[in-house]
Design goal:
The radius of gyration is 42 Å and the shape is elongated. About 0% of the residues lie in helices and about 50% in strands. The chain is built from one helix and 34 strands. It has about 475 residues and is an all-beta fold.
Length: about 475
């Protein structure tokens, strides 16, 4: 009788069609559905539709128009058709089929095979149901699909077990790029009438030669020849690249970022390949960017100044955008980066107290200050270079801005076996992370801990008083 495609249960149906010639412009599609026991007033309240470049059951297929939620229905009404079974009575009228028209927004499709999938909603409890293509005496009428219980599956008659197709009506223009205006009229005997043939490239997205035939029909017979039409679609790519700032400077080891502006000055959507040339410093940019005709956007170019760069060292890079539509169309901008001053890395370790004493088994704590004496922000690694007694650090890394001072604690445990007066010196080192790459160890500090005798324990003895007579 019909196939489930209710919005409420996320059921859908789908079928294919073929675009021929030089392409079609889709204005509307009419779908058919019924709800059992409805009147001839349409109970259909919504239809959403998706257009695919292949079967929706194929993971490689892509949606090229529509979605599963937007109600695109612009009108609905009785089709003057009732749904009946082949063996049923032709007088059955409790399933009037409704024709619902959806808006396809003038979508242009080049020649090829496409799939529509859709679902409907209605105000009654039953359905909506999509009736299949019905041809008396034929069991197989197509290769439709139904999305049921979470999966796409063939649209099959449950009695005959044969594949079914789905009816729908596509309306628009074919070819989509040419039409006559006016497209009808009356010419008296012996008179001449003129009309225009308009070529419209608004929805034509591919370059090339388009051909079609303009035909005539009326009460004059078949003695009016067909008029061939030919349109050669050409486009002009163009690109403009510029930047508000084409020169920057920074410290060695830092990265500068340029904002580059790019405009598609052509009359087609184009992808522009971004290339770099002439640079010796590490420079990065996006590989490509796609822009619609007339569209403007920006992208970043990042240049890293080497850590060993000296003052006034510089590097230039030519950033070029090249049209994929025509690789002779390109534009570029040169960016120059200068090392302002050499980066300096350094550290100074200090402590108000560098010598402490502790009893056997106790832990003494030193508070050590680390100053970044360089002119750039840097991370520092802290480590114990040498110590016989157990020595640990509160942290093994710190990050300091230029000139910043932070403190950390060093913990030294006096062994239980240490004798009074025995000493141990721990050497603590701070190294700039970048300085280590430059083989520049920055500073050390010595902390000396002495074992001391534990304070004697005092005891008190109590003697009983004995009184004798």
């Amino acid at each position: 009788m019909g196939f489930a495609h209710q919005v409420a249960f996320n059921n859908r149906v789908a079928d294919e069609f073929e675009v021929t010639g030089s392409g079609w412009r889709l204005d509307t599609v009419t779908f058919f559905a019924y709800q059992t026991d409805s009147s001839t007033t349409s109970p259909i309240t919504a239809v959403n539709v998706r257009l695919w470049d292949g079967p929706p059951s194929d993971p490689a297929s892509n949606i090229i128009f529509g979605d599963d939620s937007t109600n695109r229905m612009i009108s609905t009404g009785w089709s003057n058709i009732y749904r009946v079974t082949e063996s049923g009575s032709g007088s059955t009228t409790n399933r009037p089929i409704m024709a619902s028209v959806v808006d396809m927004e003038g979508l242009f499709l080049p020649a090829g095979t496409y799939w529509l999938d859709w679902q409907a909603d209605g105000s009654l409890a039953s359905g909506p149901w999509a009736p299949p293509i019905s041809i008396n005496g034929e069991d197989t009428t197509g290769n439709g699909l139904v999305f049921f219980q979470g999966a796409w599956q063939p649209l099959v008659d449950t009695v005959a077990a044969t594949p079914q197709g789905l009816p729908f009506v596509i309306e628009g223009l074919t070819p989509a790029w040419a039409f006559a205006t006016p497209n009808s009229g009356t010419v008296a005997a012996g008179e001449t009438a003129t009309f225009e043939v308009v070529f419209d490239t608004t929805d034509v997205v591919q370059v090339g030669t388009y051909t079609a035939d303009l035909t005539f029909s009326g009460n004059f017979g078949n003695n009016v020849p067909t008029m061939p039409l030919t349109m050669v679609m050409v486009v002009t790519p163009g690109v403009e690249v510029n930047t508000a700032v084409d020169a920057l400077s920074a410290l060695a080891g830092e990265t500068v970022t340029y904002t580059v502006h790019i405009t598609n000055t052509g009359d087609l959507t184009d992808t522009f390949d971004i290339s770099l040339s002439g640079e010796t410093w590490d420079t990065t940019a996006p590989a490509s960017i796609t822009l619609a005709a007339g569209e403007h956007n920006v992208f970043d170019v990042a240049v890293m100044i080497p850590v060993d760069a000296e003052a006034d060292d510089n590097d230039s890079v030519l950033v070029t955008a090249t049209s994929q539509a025509d690789d002779t169309v390109m534009d570029g901008v040169t960016l120059t980066t200068t090392a302002a001053i050499p980066a300096e890395y350094g550290a100074a370790l200090s402590a108000d107290v560098t010598m402490l004493t502790g009893t056997q088994g106790s832990t003494v704590t030193y508070t050590v200050s680390l100053e970044n004496t360089g002119n750039v922000s840097s991370g520092f690694m802290l480590e114990v270079l040498s110590a016989d007694w157990t020595t640990s650090l509160m942290t093994d890394t710190l990050v300091l801005d230029a000139g910043e001072v932070q403190t950390f604690e060093v913990y030294v445990t006096v062994p239980m076996t240490a004798t009074a007066g025995e000493m141990d010196t721990a050497v603590i080192q701070a190294t700039s992370a970048v300085g280590r790459l430059l083989n520049n160890q920055v500073d050390t500090i010595e902390l000396t801990t002495t074992a001391e005798e534990p304070e004697p324990t005092e005891y008190t003895s109590y003697l009983p008083i004995v009184v004798r007579p």
